[in-house]
């Protein structure tokens, strides 16, 4: 039995004061309306309506039940309005996941700008190196990084832009060990690799304006799975490291790190926003995706252009820093 449907028919009969009038308003037959009330009374095991040839009259139980029905109908209308409003107006809590360094560098200022535009949205940001299951772990949107496209899944993804990694070292390290002039020179240096899934574990794929090199990495005495930690190790003079530009922007600007072989960058990585479904998308998720595509896409594009071509070290460092000055000011 469809209890909710029968409750609505019961309210309709009472307000119309007859089965026939209620049937007309509900675009149903009188027999259908009568059977629905009988079904409801049978389910409740009590009489709700006394019927006569001219009128209907509520029983005492029917009066009490009617008031309950009114409250239930009002709550249903409120719930439907709230759900519809969530589709139209960004409100509530937005749960976002991202890789640690990517989130700290780009998402914190992006969230600040987004919330300035949509103050009714609360954001819960989780930063980790793990790849979550959006539905099982309860995230609305996750930012993921991949060399090419993401693996096939039931999720929806939007490409926000691309970023590069570059080779860096501390001035102190280069003063002691010298500055590599060619890719072959790297074999005479301590080379460090950040151990995250999007990077090959045993080699650097170096891309220049007109050529590409694959440099096989010797065994390293130090590995870490967070770009920020690798940046700290390189800053301490432990070796030459391959790092995404978002992890070293401030260090390049301050001179704490220096580009090595600046005519090359490492493998291009695509940044994606991933969410569960495009159907009946909650307004806070829809506006956050739109905001990321507009705001973060522009920043990633600027960063990518800044490290995409060959340049002198000082010029390229200045371009990378200048490209992201506006981001820090957001």
Could you provide a short overview of the structure?
The protein is an alpha/beta fold.
Structure description:
α1 packs across α2. The protein has a 5-stranded mixed β-sheet with strand order 4-3-5-15-6. It has 11 helices and 15 strands. A hairpin with a 4-residue loop joins β1 and β2. With about 325 residues, it is α/β, with parallel strands linked by helices. The C terminus is likely disordered. The radius of gyration is 32 Å and the shape is rod-shaped.
Radius of gyration: 32 Å
Strand content: 15-25%
Which oligomeric form is depicted? single chain
Distinct helical segment count: 11
For the secondary structure, the number of strands is 15
Average pLDDT, all residues: 82
User: What profile does the largest beta sheet have?
Assistant: 5 strands, mixed
User: Major sheet: order of its strands?
Assistant: 4-3-5-15-6
**Helix proportion range:** 40-55%
Structural class: alpha/beta
From N to C, what is the helix and strand string? HHHEEHEHEHEEEHEEEEHEHEEEHH
Q: What gross morphology would you assign?
A: rod-shaped
| Beginning-to-end CA distance, first to last residue | 57 Å
pLDDT under 50 segments (min length 5)?
A: 308-330
């Amino acid at each position: 039995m469809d209890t909710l449907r029968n409750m609505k028919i019961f309210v309709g009969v009472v307000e119309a004061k007859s089965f026939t009038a209620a049937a007309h308003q509900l675009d149903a037959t009188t027999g259908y309306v009568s059977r629905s009330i009988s079904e409801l009374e049978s389910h409740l095991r009590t009489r709700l309506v006394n019927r006569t040839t001219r009128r209907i009259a509520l029983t005492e139980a029917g009066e009490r039940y009617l008031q309950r029905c009114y409250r239930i109908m009002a709550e249903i209308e409120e719930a439907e309005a709230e759900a519809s409003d969530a589709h139209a107006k960004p409100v509530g809590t937005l749960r976002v996941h991202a890789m640690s360094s990517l989130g700290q560098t780009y998402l914190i200022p992006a969230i600040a700008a987004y919330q300035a535009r949509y103050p009714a949205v609360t954001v819960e940001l989780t930063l980790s190196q793990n790849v979550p299951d959006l539905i099982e772990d309860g995230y609305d949107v996750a930012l993921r990084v991949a060399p090419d496209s993401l693996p096939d899944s039931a999720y929806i993804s939007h490409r926000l832009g691309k970023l590069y990694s570059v080779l860096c070292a501390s001035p102190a390290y280069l003063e002691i060990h010298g500055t590599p002039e060619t890719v072959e020179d790297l074999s005479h240096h301590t080379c460090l690799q950040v151990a995250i899934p999007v990077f090959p574990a045993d080699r650097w794929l170096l891309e220049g304006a007109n050529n590409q090199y694959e440099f096989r990495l010797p065994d390293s005495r130090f590995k870490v799975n967070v770009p920020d930690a690798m940046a700290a190790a390189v800053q301490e003079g432990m070796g030459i490291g391959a790092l995404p530009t978002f992890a070293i922007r401030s260090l390049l600007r301050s001179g704490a790190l220096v580009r090595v072989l600046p005519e090359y960058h490492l493998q291009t990585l695509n940044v994606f926003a991933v969410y569960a479904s495009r159907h009946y998308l909650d307004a806070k998720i829809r506006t956050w995706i739109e905001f990321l595509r507009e705001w973060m896409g522009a920043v990633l594009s600027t960063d990518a252009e800044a490290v995409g071509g060959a340049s002198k070290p000082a010029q390229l460092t200045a371009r990378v820093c200048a490209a992201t000055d506006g981001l820090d000011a957001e």
